[in-house]
Amino acid sequence: MTRPRSGSSIGATAAHRVTDPDAAKLLVDEGYRNVLDAFIGHERSVGEAAEALRQGLDATLYRVRRLHGAGLLIHSGTRARAGRPVKLYRAAHDTWFVPFEALPFADLEETFLELHLANARVMAKAAARALRDSGWAGYRIQRGDDGKLWMRGGRADGGTYDGATDAAGPADAMVELRLTRDDAVRLNRDLVALVERYLALDRPEEGPANRMLVVATVPLDAER
């Protein structure tokens, strides 16, 4: 999870600096970070990590092997049992700093593109699954009361699909705005506050995440 920039932060000098591209790429991957998190402050077997994460043993084992190969997990001991002893692992560090130059991407633009593409694929798959039985049939393009030409989800019966009210289905919005600097600052603060509000409602003890929230606001170049 990429948390909003609020509260205290950890400086790069207080963290283990990552220089290996393989380790850097795993650290910015949500799935691998989730597995790594299970070993921070804990010495665990793969089976115990899978149970804590409530995910399959094979998927956990695959990720543990890659994290161990990249030096992010260390083999910390074994636990005796009937048959072959169980390997135990723990995180090599508690905190890492991944400089952009350590990532295996050409530049900053490609870095952000690759990181967001991973989330976009998850969102597209989940949204399609949720919308199949919702009556959503395509896009309705129509000028709104505000005079702008909007593209919104449309139903086969001619109605508008509203993800904000339709059984907690997917909801998204992408708009271009013309804001003053003060309004843009206020927008940033409001979005951070919104994310923090729902982070406080997160229940990690209940298993894998069942909702993805993606929030972004960026200044646009007039010459795109």
Secondary-structure map:
Blueprint: E1 16-17, H1 21-27, H2 30-37, H3 46-53, H4 57-69, E2 73-79, E3 86-91, E4 96-97, H5 108-131, E5 136-143, E6 149-155, H6 181-199
Parallel strand pairs: 1-4
Antiparallel strand pairs: 2-3, 5-6
Descriptive notes:
Mean pLDDT is 85; it is low at 5-13. The chain has 224 residues and is of the alpha+beta class. The chain starts with 15 loop residues before the first strand and ends in a 25-residue tail after the last helix. It has a two-stranded parallel sheet with strand order 1-4. α2 crosses α4 and α3 crosses α4 (57-69). It contains six helices and six strands.
Mean pLDDT: 85
CATH top-level class of the largest domain: Mainly Alpha
Q: Superfamily at the CATH H level of the largest domain?
A: Winged helix-like DNA-binding domain superfamily/Winged helix DNA-binding domain
Give the topology string: H per helix, E per strand: EHHHHEEEHEEH
Work out the strand percent: 5-15%
Rg from alpha-carbon coordinates? 22 Å
